[in-house]
Amino acid sequence: TFVNLQTSSALGKSILQSTNFDYIIVGGGVAGLTLGRRLSENSSKKVLVLEAGRSGINDTIVTIPANSFSFIATDIDWFDFSVPQVHANNLTINTSSGKILGGGSAVNGLVWIRGPKAEYDAIEQLGSPGWNWNSLYTTMKKSEKLNQPDPVYAQEFGYSAVASSHGSSGPIDVSFPPFIPEQHQRLINASVELGHVFNQDPYSGNNTGVFFSLSSQTKQAVRESAEFAYIDPVISRSNLVVFAYALVTKLDLTSAAYGKVRSTGVKIRFPDGSVKSATAKASGEVVLTAGALRTPQLLELSGIGDPAVLTPLGIPVKLALPSVGTNYEDHTITVLTYQLKAGYLSFDALDYNATLKAEQQELYKQGKGWLTFANAVLNMSPIEKILTPAEIEEAHTILATKPPTIGQDSFNIIKNQIFSGVPQIEFLLFNSFSGGETKLPNTSYVSAAITHLHPLSRGSIHIKSASIDDKPLINPNVLESEWDHWLLSKATKYARKFFQTQAFREIFEQEEVWPGSAVETDAQFQDWVKANINTGYHSVGTASLLPLAKGGVVDKNLRVYGATNLRIADMSVMPLLISAHTQTAAYGIAEKAADIIKST
Ligand SMILES: Cc1cc2nc3c(=O)[nH]c(=O)nc-3n(C[C@H](O)[C@H](O)[C@H](O)COP(=O)(O)OP(=O)(O)OC[C@H]3O[C@@H](n4cnc5c(N)ncnc54)[C@H](O)[C@@H]3O)c2cc1C
C-alpha cells in the first residue's frame, strides 16, 4: 500500500490509528526499501516504511541516466553543506543527498561496482563476526540481476561481464549503457599506456585496474532505483505500507529491563504540520535507515548519543552512547578540466546544440544514444601505479604516525592495505566542464575526477539544536591527516599523465583548462587541493558496526548498544570505506540485515 501523505493525509492518519506494526522502517532509501520488501515477504508481519521525500516515478530527473546529479538543489535534495573545513581553507562542501523514495539510488551516478575482498573482511577483523566478503558478496549478488549486453554493443565498445560474478535474479537490473562516449572508451587505452592493467572481472573481489563498470539501469536504459526495483513490484502487499512525505522527527523511547531503552514507535510530521505516532507492537522493532547523514541526527534528537552533545541542547539523555555521529568518513575528490579538440563532443554540446539535444531525446525513447549514459569506465589504482619508489618511501615515513581521529585498529588495517596493493585512488571522467575561468562557447570539455578512496581523517555529524528543522553539523574533517593531503595532491598531479598519453592527446587540447599551468610543483598542488577539494557523496560510519569499546553504535546483529528493539541498517553502520561507489554495499548490508532480522 502506497500512501502519499501530501494528497492522502486522512488515509495515512487512519492507518496509523488502526495499526500496530511489527517493523517500522525510518527512511525509504536504499536500505529502507530493501528491508521494506524483504521483511514484508512474511505476510503475517506488518511493515511500515517512512520516507520524507516523494516518489520518483515518471520523473525524468530520476529515470534518465544522463540526468544524474541534476537533482541538486531541487525538491528531492536535502541540499546540505559541510561546516567550514578548517584544514581546507574553510571551504563549505556540498553534501547533497536524495530526499526521495530510493534515497541515493534515485539520484546517484548509477555506478555499480564492488571493492576488493580485503575491504569487506576488514569489517570482521574490526570485531564483527560474520561481516566479511563471503557473506556480503552473497547478499550483494542477491540484490542484482545482470543483463548481458547486446552483442552489437559489446563488440562496438568492448565490454563484457563474467556471469558468475553477478546475481541473476535480484531486483536491481544492472546493465552496460548502450552508448559510451569516445573519451571514456579512451580512458581504457590511456590507462593501459600508463601501465595499469585492464581488469575483465572487477566484481568478484579484485577491482584493481581499469575496467568497464555496470550501471544500475535496465536494458532499456531506465534508472533502477530502490523504489522502482524493490518496492513497486510488491507495493500491493497488504502487510506493507509505504508513506511518502513522512518526516520522522524522533523515536519514542521508554525504559526497559537492565537499564536498556525500548522504542515504542516514532513521531511523524505530516505535510499539513500535524504530528502523529506510528506504534510498534510489543514484539515489534524500529529500524533506522535514514542514511549516514541523518541517522545520527534522529538518534540524537531522540536522546541517544553523547551526553556532552545532548545535555547542552536541553535534550534528556535516554541512552548514553558517545560514538553516535563520530567516525564519519567520505571519499575526497579533486577535478581537472580539459578541452576536447574540435569534432569531439561531450555532454556540454547538449547545452549549445539544440538540434543534437532534440535528436538525443528522440533516440532515448528507443533506449539509445547519449542520454542512456551516466558513467562506465573506472580506474582503481594502488599506490605503486601512481607513486615513484622514492615517494613510496616517503609514504612509509608519513604513515609511521597514526593520524589523530582514526581508530588504531582501522589505521593498522588501512596501512596494511595501502602497502599490499589495495586500490587507494580512483580515476574517472565526468563528461562535461566542471571548473576553470573560461568556458568557451560551442566547446566541449571533459573533467577527470581523482578520488582518495581511504582517507584517514575522521569527522563527525551532530545536531546543533533540539529541532529536526535545523540541519545537522556535517563535518567530514577533510585533510586533517597529512597522508590525505599528501596522497590526494600526488594523485591529482599524476592524473595529468593520462592527458599526455597518445590515446588522450589525439582528442584533447594539450593545454589544461583547470587548474592549468599555474599549478605545477608539489607545493602548488597541495595548495590547490586545499582550495578545491570536495567529498564523494559516499558518506559512511556515523553509527558504526564495531565493538562498543572500539567506538561502536551497533553490534553484529545491527542492534543499537543499550536498546532492545532498535537497529540500524544503512550506510552509517559501515565502519570503513571501500574502494568502490557505495550503493552495492548499501544493498548488500541491507539484504544481510533482512536475513539477520528475520532470524533473530
Ligand atoms: C549525488 C550522489 C551520487 C552518488 N553516486 C553513486 C554512484 O554512482 N554509485 C554508487 O554506488 N553510489 C553512489 N552514491 C552513494 C549511494 O547512493 C549511497 O551509498 C546509498 O544511497 C546509501 O544508502 P542508504 O540507505 O544508507 O541511504 P539513502 O539511500 O540516502 O537513504 C536514506 C533515506 O532516508 C530518508 N530520510 C532521511 N531522514 C529522514 C527522516 N527524518 N524522515 C524520513 N525519511 C528520512 C532520505 O530522504 C532517504 O530517502 C551517490 C550518492 C549521492 C548522494
UniProtKB/TrEMBL annotation:
Keyword annotations from UniProtKB, A to Z: FAD, Flavoprotein, Glycoprotein, Oxidoreductase, Secreted, Signal
Entry annotated with the keyword Nucleotidyltransferase: no
Catalytic reaction(s) noted: a pyranoside + acceptor = a pyranosid-3,4-diulose + reduced acceptor; pyranose + acceptor = pyranos-3-ulose + reduced acceptor; a pyranoside + acceptor = a pyranosid-3-ulose + reduced acceptor; pyranose + acceptor = pyranos-2,3-diulose + reduced acceptor
Transmembrane segment boundaries: none
Record-listed E.C. numbers: 1.1.99.29
GO cellular component: extracellular region
Top-rank taxon, per record: Eukaryota
Major subcellular location class: secreted
The protein's required cofactors: FAD
Subcellular location: Secreted
InterPro entries from the UniProt entry: FAD/NAD-bd_sf (IPR036188), GMC_OxRdtase (IPR012132), GMC_OxRdtase_N (IPR000172), GMC_OxRtase_C (IPR007867)
Alphabetized GO MF terms: flavin adenine dinucleotide binding; pyranose dehydrogenase (acceptor) activity
Homology family: Belongs to the GMC oxidoreductase family.
Assembly with partners or alone: Monomer.
Xref: PANTHER family: GLUCOSE-METHANOL-CHOLINE GMC OXIDOREDUCTASE, GLUCOSE-METHANOL-CHOLINE OXIDOREDUCTASE N-TERMINAL DOMAIN-CONTAINING PROTEIN
Role description: Catalyzes the single-oxidation or sequential double oxidation reaction of carbohydrates primarily at carbon-2 and/or carbon-3 with the concomitant reduction of the flavin. Accepts only a narrow range of electron acceptors such as substituted benzoquinones and complexed metal ions and reacts extremely slowly with O(2) as acceptor.
Protein name: pyranose dehydrogenase (acceptor)
UniProt source species: Crucibulum laeve
